[in-house]
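Retro notes (design track)

What went well: tokenization of the new backbones is finally stable.
What didn't: we kept losing track of which sequence belonged to which structure.
Fix going forward: every design gets posted as structure first, then sequence, in one message. First example under the new rule, 101 residues:
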């Protein structure tokens, strides 16, 4: 499900896969060949979420960007990042080829 929020609309590369039960809210950018699996939630809230090329966000993972006062806290994933089932990421940057479980 793609949801416009706070003026941001999810943008998904046409080679990426987003499962029908995944939820993308606000300013979300999903790169080529990325896979967002069942039950995953990507929420930009007051910032943005960027998913790099060939990333895999597995079942029920939560990626949530935020802002603390004036400080922007996006979630930015480099290329080839793997986020394991039920993992939660809040306002962070992960370099290329990181595995989070």
């Amino acid at each position: 499900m793609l949801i416009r929020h706070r003026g941001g609309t999810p943008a998904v590369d046409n080679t990426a896969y987003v499962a029908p039960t995944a939820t993308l809210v606000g300013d979300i950018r999903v790169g080529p060949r990325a896979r967002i699996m069942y039950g995953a939630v990507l929420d930009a809230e007051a910032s943005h979420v960027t998913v790099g090329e060939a990333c895999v966000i597995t079942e029920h993972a939560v990626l949530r960007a935020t802002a603390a006062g004036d400080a922007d806290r996006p979630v930015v994933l480099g290329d080839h990042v793997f986020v394991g089932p039920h993992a939660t990421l809040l306002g962070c940057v992960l370099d290329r080829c990181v595995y989070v479980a």
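Added context from the reviewer: The first strand starts at residue 2 and ends at 3.
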